[in-house]
From TrEMBL:
<feature type="transmembrane region" description="Helical">
    <location>
        <begin position="75"/>
        <end position="96"/>
    </location>
</feature>
<feature type="transmembrane region" description="Helical">
    <location>
        <begin position="204"/>
        <end position="223"/>
    </location>
</feature>
<keyword id="KW-0472">Membrane</keyword>
<dbReference type="GO" id="GO:0005886">
    <property type="term" value="C:plasma membrane"/>
</dbReference>
<keyword id="KW-1133">Transmembrane helix</keyword>
<dbReference type="Pfam" id="PF00528">
    <property type="entry name" value="BPD_transp_1"/>
</dbReference>
<feature type="transmembrane region" description="Helical">
    <location>
        <begin position="12"/>
        <end position="35"/>
    </location>
</feature>
<feature type="transmembrane region" description="Helical">
    <location>
        <begin position="108"/>
        <end position="131"/>
    </location>
</feature>
<feature type="transmembrane region" description="Helical">
    <location>
        <begin position="158"/>
        <end position="183"/>
    </location>
</feature>
<dbReference type="InterPro" id="IPR000515">
    <property type="entry name" value="MetI-like"/>
</dbReference>
<feature type="transmembrane region" description="Helical">
    <location>
        <begin position="266"/>
        <end position="286"/>
    </location>
</feature>
<dbReference type="GO" id="GO:0055085">
    <property type="term" value="P:transmembrane transport"/>
</dbReference>
<keyword id="KW-0812">Transmembrane</keyword>
<comment type="similarity">
    <text>Belongs to the binding-protein-dependent transport system permease family.</text>
</comment>
<keyword id="KW-0813">Transport</keyword>
<keyword id="KW-1003">Cell membrane</keyword>
<protein>
    <submittedName>
        <fullName>Sugar ABC transporter permease</fullName>
    </submittedName>
</protein>
């Protein structure tokens, strides 16, 4: 009896396109990056080939002070912007969760999707217009308070803040929608009973609603941390990593090494270390936040 080369199960054929896309878009580039990270691969010197260099690229990365500076700027951005997004998102979710606002929740869901649906590159271009020194909206609004025009994208600190403002604008709605979904899972009977016991909103939030918010909060931390560690488009279109190196986050630095200095091997090693850091952060979030549900 001849063995069938292709299974006849419908489940296989439904899963095959997704698995194939994952392999082509995700797994194959990962394997290529891993291969390049242990080889010498310079685009400007392809005649020398791609000899195996072992862990030399990783050692060069770990001893590169510029790499650590870029990573430090990225981690500082994560530690500043992410709590703001979660706090504002939680505030918006609590406001929309109030009884008797069904029509407002429906309209808000539509409005909150707009920033999330905007691509990163467009967000960066919008940021360049908003924070332009000559005709930007930011300086126009400050003029009403008698503040002189600021060089938002020319000052290192202000450029860093400008990128943070645009990221908070784009992703606070995401946090609000995820947390609002968690609040809708809270039993109404439990909330009503808690309101009869106490009028302190923080008490109800901590003892009644917190367990339903933790899964969404964990998802926000994992997804947004990964996004911030690899954010490139918005920063590059808005500041090009400048002024100087003020907004040269780790992804912008890796791009400079790989496509402006043409050292694909070193850039791949840096990208693999960034992947390891993302996995470690995700495991920490799951261990210390999500486990509270157990």
């Amino acid at each position: 009896m001849r063995r069938r080369l292709w299974p006849r199960s419908p489940a296989f054929w439904f899963l095959f396109p997704a698995v194939f896309a994952l392999a082509v878009i995700g797994i194959y580039p990962l394997l290529v990056a891993l291969y390049n990270s242990v080889h010498q691969y310079r685009l400007a010197d392809l005649e020398s080939g791609t000899p195996f260099v072992g862990l030399d690229n990783y050692v060069a990365t770990l001893t590169d002070s510029t790499f650590w500076q870029a990573l430090g700027r990225t981690m500082l951005f994560l530690c500043l912007a992410l709590p703001i997004e979660i706090a504002l998102g939680l505030f918006a979710a609590l406001m929309l969760h109030r009884p008797g606002l069904a029509w407002l929740r429906a309209a808000a869901r539509v409005g909150l999707v707009v920033p999330m649906a905007t691509t990163y590159a467009v967000v960066g271009l919008i940021g360049r217009l908003i924070f332009n020194r000559q005709f930007g909206v930011a300086n126009y609004l400050l003029g009403f308070f008698g503040v002189q025009p600021l060089d938002w994208l020319g000052d290192p600190t202000l450029a860093y803040v400008s990128v943070m403002v645009m990221d908070v604008w784009q992703w606070t709605p995401f946090c609000a929608l995820i947390l609002l979904a968690g609040l809708t899972m809270v039993p109404k009977e439990a909330e009503e009973a808690a309101r009869l016991e106490t009028r302190k909103r923080l008490t109800i939030l901590w003892h009644i609603e917190r367990p339903y918010l933790l899964p969404g909060l964990t998802a926000i931390l994992i997804l947004r941390s990964a996004d911030m560690l690899k954010m490139f488009d918005a920063v590059y279109t808005m500041t090009r990593g400048g002024p100087g190196a003020a907004t040269e986050f780790i992804s912008v630095y890796i791009e400079r090494i790989g496509f402006r200095l043409f050292d694909q091997g070193l850039a791949s090693a840096q990208a693999m270390l960034l992947l390891v850091l993302t996995i470690v952060l995700s495991r920490l979030y799951i261990r210390y936040i999500y486990r509270e549900l157990a």
